[in-house]
Amino acid sequence: MARPADAHAIRSAFLSFFEERGHAAVPSSPLVPFDDPTLLFVNAGMVQFKDVFTGRDKRDYTRATSAQRCLRAGGKHNDLDNVGFTPRHHTLFEMLGNFSFGDYFKRDAIRWGWEFLTQVLELPAEKLVVSVFNGEGENAPFDQEAYDLWAEIIPKERIYAFDAKENFWQMGDTGPCGPCSEIHIWRGEGGAPPDGGKPGKGPAFEDDKYMELWNLVFMQYEKLASGEMTKLPAPSVDTGAGLERLAAVLEGVETNYETGLFVPIVDKVKALAGVSGHQGEREASYRVIADHARATAFLIADGVTPDQTGRPYVLRRIMRRAIRHATLVGLEDLFFHEVCDEVVNRFGEAYPELREAREVIAGAVKIEEEGFRRTLARGLRRVSKILAGLEAEGSKVFPVDEAADLYTSAGFPIDLTRVIAEENELTLDEAAVAEKLEAQKGESSFAGGGGSKVADVYFDIVNELGQGTAFLGYGATAGEATLKAIVIPAPEPAEGEPALEPTRVESAQAGQAVELIFDQSPFYGESGGQVGDTGALRAVDGGAVVTVTQTSKPTGGLHVHHGELAGGSIAVGQRFVLEVDVARRDAIRRNHSATHMLHHALRKVLGKHVAQKGSLVAPDRLRFDFSHARSVTREETRRIEAEVNAMVLANAPTGTAEMSLADAKQAGAIGLFGEKYGAEVRVVTIGEVETEAGEERSVELCGGTHVARAGDVGLFKIVAEGGVAQGVRRIEAMTGMGAVEWVQERAEVVDQVASDLRARDLGEVLGRLEKLHEELAARGREIDSLKRKLATGGGGSQASEVVEVEGGGKTVKLTARRIPVADPKIMREAADTLRDRMGSGVVVLAGERDGKANLLVATTKDLAKGKIVHAGKLAAALVVHVDGRGGGRPDMAQAGGPKVAGLDDVVAHAAEELAKQLA
RNA sequence: GGGGGCAUAGCUCAGUUGGGAGAGCAUCGCACUGGCAGUGCGAAGGUCAGGAGUUCAAGUCUCCUUGCCUCCA
């Protein structure tokens, strides 16, 4: 085999090498682990084989090889902050591996690892050193076998032995584990490492002089809960070699960023920034952006879009960090999508899923970058405001609380705050801010925790039965079966208490809540968005009846019937007749088939970027979440409804077929291909509509239950559309009689409205309504104008009573009056008018509103500014007559009180109180 | 799941002991100009997210609901 020409060629060379040695080349799994809530992202090559190692899953091969995309960001392994500043930390990386599931063991693993490095990659053998487990730190002995095998290949002084911390591996606290053997390359001076085999030397102690290339894990033990170690009957091998490191060695460069995997991406960023060559201190920023663009492109291709919780939040952090670094090197425009697109160009051949998702990636990245740049702009405004305040105070220290607050509530990066502060010759204690944030973290410690862990009891049952429940429900809604297991559900734990485990029993009595498992069942267990069936279970001997309120599928095809034992007693081994609630199931069928047709119509009307993000199929409605950046317009909604209803009317039969995943893809099936399916997948076809574009139909991977013909769906009606997250829309719809009733209800209301409006037909309704609105607004204006006239004395027919008040040698004009409308707005306007009429003077208005007394005192500006009259004080003095309180500014004050009868007194005493103020 | 924050004109936002709902941009009208750009003047546009409470008085204070932003797990 020829030496790989570049970094990308290493990948294919590796896979071919092991394929030639009988391995199945398995494609990389998506970054989101299937069915494993304990793991945020796939972070090692063996993740997709986890269940194969434990024996829970069987494959038709016993040796495999893969190039697996992995991500380390968020969670326990968080290297995010190091990325870009060190030679080898990455968020996304590729792990090359070969695996043996009870097939070959140490000899072949060691031999092939060595052969690939020295003969295919042609690495100098004298620079390679290896390590084995020395028997310390774990309840397992020195790995003599591995040592002896290595000794056949390389000189003994280049074989090191280290303790469990370095050379022992385990999947979890219990389960398969074993010693491992690592291959390192000497990077120091000279051809070979100088301190071969000496204690305290070697890769475990001199990390900077060696680089780990390959880790070979030999799974030969099983660790029990007691800590005891037992030997596995069929030992396995799990190996991993980082592609980026191999590339760096092969190309003879110092850092992974200088390999062919990164250079084109880094250069793309530099081109966008208008620079080239090494950028000194700023180089790290370009590396961060390149690294994060890789992670971003792959994550989005695997169905993750940035958001505020969980995996989507990790993606958001990665993206924002990249954009933050972009601002540091002066990239001000939207640019990140172009970098991600370059990733698609470079990695699309090895990972076709990137190419398929090209538009989706670009769209999601643009949206996020726009959003974050808005966040930054908002933050900058807040910072400027704070800076202005500090300048006024003459302070030279940026407040720690403000910086922390900017970060936690506005998402404004702390380091950016510091940079701006420094530009304004202010200091910011970043350590104090970090401390403050740490303290806040303590305050917001979360309650509860963990995902929904599947209770062990269900795994035990599957293992014991050897298989799950055989599902009869595609063809039937009733059937006979044997009761295989009874589980008593765990009671709800008290607040703050850990969840309790359900318990297995052999029999149960009337009145008990039970979960029943049969060898076969027509009941559909909740999965794939479709809700579980309900119905009844009757013992064949006539004794017991169980009402089933829910059917779930906690694991591996196990259909669990939840319900209550209505009468009699039951025991494992009994025969039952199982009857699904048929009307409910039929409603579910309609909604499930309609969901498929909706998905198809959405892709047709909105575009191929539409991908399922979530789905709920219930008897009364269906809900479908999908990726789409904008809201769906009314016109689009209309077209989508029309598409679906056209398919319904064509009334084509639905078809289901079992086929291989490859054949399903070939047939154009859509579905969540990232999920783990068995060798055979079920494909549901609905439609066969003749259109100008040819035949059209919905083809989807699906395990759900469907109608026999599209026409069974009946009327399809979208009843709601909205957003659930950035870039994700939700449509809710109804079918069958439910949809008919929904439409009828609406139509009745519209008819009623039309007749109330005296509209002759529907077209007239909107016109009438508009006219009504206009009329109402006109009347409102008229009323306001009349109120104003009343308040100011009715158009001058009654002469305004202006009196002159003397006091303290000054004379001030006063108008004091009762007014019939005491609307605050009207009173202000009236006071303005009266004030203007007097030129200079004081206005006191008193009136009743909603059973309360309101007064208003206003003075002209000259009196207020000259501190001759204070409206607020005058109002306070007058309001005692209505037992109220009040106040206001010198030129305008309002007051009020409950004693309406005192209003005349207010007017009567106005002159007197004003005189007191003047004096 | 927990914490912090926001919701005011079509858009971006101001509104500081609770006491006249504002600015800029956009829209429309008028004027200047041969036309456009532009400038000037003017107008329209608001259930201050929704609901309850405190108060004589709530955009402003309290509580609830909804939506969004943001940090953390």
Automatic annotation (TrEMBL):
One of its GO terms (biological process) is alanyl-tRNA aminoacylation. CDD domains: AlaRS_core. It is an enzyme of class 6 (ligase). Its cofactor is Zn(2+). Binds 1 zinc ion per subunit. InterPro entries: aa-tRNA-synth_II/BPL/LPL, Ala-tRNA-lgiase_IIc, Ala-tRNA-ligase_IIc_anticod-bd, Ala-tRNA-synth_IIc_core, Ala-tRNA-synth_IIc_N, Ala-tRNA_ligase, Ala_tRNA_ligase_euk/bac, DHHA1_dom. NCBIfam families: alaS (TIGR00344). Consists of three domains; the N-terminal catalytic domain, the editing domain and the C-terminal C-Ala domain. The editing domain removes incorrectly charged amino acids, while the C-Ala domain, along with tRNA(Ala), serves as a bridge to cooperatively bring together the editing and aminoacylation centers thus stimulating deacylation of misacylated tRNAs. Its main location: cytoplasm. The lineage of its organism: Bacteria, Pseudomonadati, Myxococcota, Polyangia, Nannocystales. Residues 5-745 form the Alanyl-transfer RNA synthetases family profile domain. Belongs to the class-II aminoacyl-tRNA synthetase family. SUPFAM superfamilies: Class II aaRS and biotin synthetases (SSF55681), Putative anticodon-binding domain of alanyl-tRNA synthetase (AlaRS) (SSF101353), ThrRS/AlaRS common domain (SSF55186), Translation proteins (SSF50447). This is Alanine--tRNA ligase. Catalyzes the attachment of alanine to tRNA(Ala) in a two-step reaction: alanine is first activated by ATP to form Ala-AMP and then transferred to the acceptor end of tRNA(Ala). Also edits incorrectly charged Ser-tRNA(Ala) and Gly-tRNA(Ala) via its editing domain. GO terms for molecular function: alanine-tRNA ligase activity; aminoacyl-tRNA deacylase activity; ATP binding; tRNA binding; zinc ion binding. It is found in: Cytoplasm. The keyword Zinc applies. GO terms for cellular component: cytosol.
